[in-house]
């Protein structure tokens, strides 16, 4: 990874090279980097746990991510490429004013930092188990490698490392772990004979959970800086549409593979004390030395790709959207040095968060609740509603984010209420205040 990062640095000479790989990625690179960005620890280790507990319906987490990638590729990629921008929040500035951009950038920065931190925590956890190191040492080594290659080469380094990580994930999880665990369980017929019928129902996980996954992850993909930044790297509209859609399909299939692994683990290891350890335990139980190392590398690859994506998204948002508030120039001389400095500094912040936050799923849920609850409504309004106003957008961001925080505190991070109520409050405040405003600037042309 470090060697690829160094090679990427040689190609990242300008700001456009550093942030969006010169807007020059072809079909293979685009598909690999998009899929690797989306499929992190939650999609890999989390889906195996869901498969262990719920059966095949555990694939819905990955499916909602995959459908989100398909949606943004088919409906938004073409117009987004025409805008020649770097961040999600620049769309809000074009529709509203700089205040809306800066307010949304603060939400986006928190989201991106938490995405980077959650994957870094997971990297530290895997390395701690693998090498018997103290957790803080594992975080600094594993996370430090991600910070290093992200800092020196930006999007080019991320793309090159993502391709290798994508290949390792595919081979390790889909072509090695799934067939070997399925074989150990006695094959598909043995799963049918030994598992409850609910394990083979696509809706056993519950409609409330499926709907929540779509609200959080499907729409989170549509407005996440880490995803938009990948869209901006496509060489052509066709690459973005076709390869992006293929990446979405891959995510759905990856989720099915993870769920099947979890189901096989339920047969092989029916009485796990902690279902969160389903992935690690089945890997340790099923695979021989050497092969086990490749699969652990696959898990680390998934985590590293997501951590680096979150870090670069955070640094891009800080440099392009928030730095001007302090008197800086987001467009100074087109050089990548300033962006490298932001990536390094925020990389240190991500490592710091990873050392003090312990619950990965809670941190990830917090990030997506804030992002979707605070930004989905104003962004959709910016694109599709001519009466939308700056006052309505800012009110929606503030009230939606605040509502998400209140209900996460009251009902817990596992509850569905934060996303439901934050979207409801954000929508009502956006519409009412926009209609009360005297003027609106017209929707952005995304067609």
TrEMBL record:
InterPro entries: Na/Glc_symporter_sf, Na/solute_symporter, Na/solute_symporter_CS, Sodium:Solute_Symporter
GO cellular component terms given for this protein: plasma membrane
Chief localization: membrane
GO molecular function: symporter activity
Swiss-Prot/TrEMBL GO biological process terms: carboxylic acid transport; sodium ion transport
Transmembrane spans: 29-52, 58-81, 102-127, 133-152, 164-182, 202-223, 244-265, 294-314, 341-361, 367-385, 392-413, 419-437
Organism superkingdom: Bacteria
UniProt keyword annotations, A-Z: Cell membrane, Ion transport, Membrane, Sodium, Sodium transport, Symport, Transmembrane, Transmembrane helix, Transport
Pfam families hit by this protein: SSF
Location in the cell: Membrane
Membrane topology classification: Multi-pass membrane protein
Protein family per UniProt: Belongs to the sodium:solute symporter (SSF) (TC 2.A.21) family.
Protein name, UniProt field: Putative SSS family transporter
Organism of provenance: Metapseudomonas resinovorans NBRC 106553
């Amino acid at each position: 990874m470090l060697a690829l990062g160094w090679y990427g640095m040689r190609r990242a000479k300008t700001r456009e090279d550093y942030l969006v790989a010169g807007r020059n990625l072809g079909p293979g690179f685009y598909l690999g980097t998009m899929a690797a960005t989306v499929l992190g620890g939650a999609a890999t280790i989390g889906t195996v746990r869901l498969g262990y507990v719920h059966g095949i319906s555990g694939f819905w987490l990955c499916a909602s991510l995959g459908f989100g990638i398909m949606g943004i590729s088919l409906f938004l990629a073409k117009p987004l490429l025409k805008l020649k921008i770097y961040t999600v929040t620049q769309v809000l500035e074009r529709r509203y004013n700089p205040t809306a951009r800066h307010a949304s950038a603060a939400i986006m920065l928190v989201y991106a930092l938490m995405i980077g931190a959650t994957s870094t925590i997971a990297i530290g956890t895997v390395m701690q188990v693998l090498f018997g190191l103290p957790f803080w040492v594992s975080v600094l080594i594993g996370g430090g490698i991600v910070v290093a290659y992200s800092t020196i080469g930006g999007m080019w380094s991320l793309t090159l490392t993502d391709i290798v990580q994508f290949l390792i994930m595919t081979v390790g999880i889909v072509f090695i772990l799934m067939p070997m665990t399925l074989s150990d369980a006695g094959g598909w017929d043995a799963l049918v004979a030994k598992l409850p019928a609910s394990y083979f129902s696509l809706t056993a996980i519950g409609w409330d959970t499926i709907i929540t996954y779509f609200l959080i992850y499907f729409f989170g993909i549509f407005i996440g800086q880490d995803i938009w930044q990948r869209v901006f790297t496509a060489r052509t509209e066709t690459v973005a549409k076709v390869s992006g859609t293929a990446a979405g399909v891959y995510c759905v299939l990856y989720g099915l593979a993870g769920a099947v692994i979890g189901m096989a683990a339920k047969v092989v290891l029916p009485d796990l004390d902690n279902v969160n350890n389903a992935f690690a335990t089945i890997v340790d139980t099923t695979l021989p030395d050497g092969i086990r190392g490749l699969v652990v590398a696959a898990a680390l690859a998934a985590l590293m790709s997501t951590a680096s994506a979150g870090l670069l998204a955070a640094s891009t948002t800080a440099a392009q959207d928030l730095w001007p508030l302090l008197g800086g120039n987001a467009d100074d001389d087109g050089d990548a040095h300033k962006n490298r400095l932001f990536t390094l500094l925020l990389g240190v912040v991500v490592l710091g968060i990873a050392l003090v936050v312990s619950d990965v799923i809670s941190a990830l849920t917090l990030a997506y609740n804030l992002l979707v609850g605070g930004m989905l409504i104003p962004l959709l309004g910016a694109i599709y509603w001519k009466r939308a106003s700056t006052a309505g957008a800012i009110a929606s961001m503030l009230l939606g984010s605040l509502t998400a925080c209140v209900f996460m505190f009251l009902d817990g991070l596992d509850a569905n209420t934060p996303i439901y109520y934050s979207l409801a409050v954000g929508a009502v405040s956006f519409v009412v205040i926009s209609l009360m405003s005297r003027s609106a600037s017209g929707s952005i042309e995304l067609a």
